[in-house]
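Practice problem: predict the structure.
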Amino acid sequence: MKTENALIIKETSKELQLISKLYADSGYFPDVKSMAQAFVKIAAGREMGLPAMAAMTGIAIIKGKPVAGAHIIASKVIMSGYVYRVKELSNDNCVIEFFSKDGESLGKSSFDEEDAKKADLLNKDNWKKYPRNMYFARAMANGQKWYCPDATLGMVVYTPDELGGKVDPDGNPVIDKGGKAIMDAEFETVEAKPEPIPPKPENEKTGEKSPKITAPQRKKIMALCTTTYKIPKDGIKPFLRRMIGRDFESRNDITEQEASIAINMLETEPYAVKDILDELREEDINKMNEVPKNQGELKL
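Answer:
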């Protein structure tokens, strides 16, 4: 069965490294402490057909394997054209039926108290606190593997609970201050595998300066900012500073690679762009509110 997924974005190794660095340097992701960690998450997301922001917020690595919350797995099922129906959901059982793109029933995936008992799950904190979520997550993860493996492009994706990770009420992995998933007691002695470190770009090895933004790139960024996102011209520079994660005097100081990544995000990740714009607007509002009233009218 062929899967067509418009979210798959092909990038060079250098571009992926730069994206990873921008996300890691932003400081908005407490579970990411280095470019290498961001690189692994984004690369895993690309293998599943997820954009960078979805990978950064929805994927974790446990024991060298990618894990995702049940909502990510369920969304991939729907995005790939399949349909699922929750037939039963209680504190001791979940049954989900999966349907093909043509509406044909592919089968049911169930996970009940007996299954949980056989797997020694019932005494775990996750299963005591959020039993409905846990049963749903297991039934969804199994059903996706059995009936629509192409939804994740053949990659076997686990829920955090399957690999012994603690989860929050939404089924996402709980991350410690060091950026690692917190494991249940019986798994805590397992030694974590080191994450691979991507090779440095050539310009970092040789000390050569990266080529500057090209005229077509500059024109395209301006068009996307002003036309697609309605960003005023005086707001484009602070927006780009936030997007690429560094300060610069002029837009001409942006490198060709940074411009390529900016264009890619503007074209394919509208939610990430919206988040940056919302943050900048909120900061502007806070600055205005901090001005004492006796200073008179604020001139913009």
